TrEMBL record, chain A:
Name of protein: Amino acid ABC transporter ATP-binding protein
Keyword Transmembrane helix on entry: no
Database matches in Pfam families: ABC_tran
Lineage, uppermost ranks: Bacteria, Bacillati, Actinomycetota, Thermoleophilia, Solirubrobacterales
Presence of keyword Membrane: yes
Species name: Conexibacter stalactiti
From TrEMBL, chain B:
SUPFAM superfamilies assigned to the protein according to its UniProt record, in alphabetical order: MetI-like
Species for this entry: Conexibacter stalactiti
Chief location of this protein within or outside the cell: membrane
CDD domains noted in UniProt: TM_PBP2
Annotated localization: Cell membrane
Similarity comment: Belongs to the binding-protein-dependent transport system permease family.
Protein name in UniProt: Amino acid ABC transporter permease
Cross-referenced PROSITE patterns: ABC_TM1 (PS50928)
Amino acid sequence: MSATTTSSLLELRQVTKQFGATTVLQPTDLQVRRGEVVCVIGPSGSGKSTLLRCVNFIAPPSTGSIVFDGAEYTPPTDHRWVPALGLPEERRLTRLRSEIGMVFQQFNVFPHLTVRENVAIGCRKTCGLGRKEAAERALAELTKVGMAEKVDAYPEQLSGGQKQRVAIARALALDPKLMLFDEATSALDPELVNGILAIMRELAEAGMTMMVVTHEMRFAMEVADRVIFMDRGCIVEEGTPEQFKDPQHERTRTFLRSINHG
Amino acid sequence: MLVFGFDYSVISDNQDALLDGLVLTVEVAALGFLLAVVLGLPLALAGRSRSPLARVPAMLWIALARGVPLLIVIFWLYYAAAQEGLFSLTAFVAGVLSLGLTGSGYMAEIYRTALSAVPVGQYESAAAIGLSRITAFRVIILPQAVRTAIPPAMNLFVMLLKGATLLSVIGLADMFYTAKLVAVNEFKPFELYTAAAVLVIAVTLVAALGAGLVERRFSKGVRR
């Protein structure tokens, strides 16, 4: 267990993200408590995904810092001339990422590995489990998401929904303290969406801390402890699902109307 | 239609010498190709580096390796270096080196495009499960890139095999050298050079079969 006793697992302090001259994320503060489920909604290009990707430094923030489980992480120094100098910092971020699971819109399963290996690879390389233990761990996680029968299949033989189940198992196999879902159901056929949402719901009920970027308003309203509406790189409004039934800001209202009648 | 007879006997009389030469040709080409495969990967990685300290020398190397004609590289390594007292190489070593160095530039480009063909999402999800960049490269990225690299690498091998016939100019007693010798002695150039061509094509076909097998091995889980 970590030294911190605060209930906040994750804290973003004035985090920004620029791509060249474009600012994708304006200075953002955010705290996520242990066990909390935060749903992030907003139009495309509003910075939701970027916000999520800053948390595990898949897209390192440009400025600001992130406190996760009591440890602070700042934007990595750009060792342009001798990239090897960045290795110690990189190692620290690698450890951070091993404590944060992430599920992507496009699944990003590893096509050259079997379902079992997809899940086991992280256990072996990150948690240092042996081949046999990792395979057992993988099977256990795959069973939880209903993929036990497909352990020897390759991703190519799976449907989108099944791939996403594998991706979820792959993330959970590392026993993460926080799960990030980046539009996990957006690339799925409508009939497959509910299966994935059900897994996410169970996860939330089991007490997992989650940040969920989603367009599934019903899921957000039913599962989230807190909803965040983002637009143009800013958090415009945040509150409980109850409060989002009657949003304060006009932009939030317009957005919710547009997706409800879309 | 041929207006003269094709004399098979001159080929069968010299078939042992030709086949010995062929073994040497294939050896030189295979070793040169191996050198290119080994040198190409660090070159490609250096070429993709953000650091100019790695990128600029690598890109220079690649440009030179691809730009300088093989024949000049061969002459340079075999004659010019010895003349200047830099080093002196046997025809075999000079052959392997010139094929390998020339090939390394092409191989680096093959790796580079193969690496770019791996979707960004693969890098991201590898990082997201806590793999270091080196581990991610080794277990996630490279195996996928190798699959893409095999067909063009096969092309390179064929190119080097054909390039190996140039080595007869520095007196390497390879298949083409033998064919030329017999052709001159027996005054049967058409027969011998045809035989030489057929032999190279035969090796190319065998190599293509081999490449197919390797490709299948690396294509697990991918629809062809």
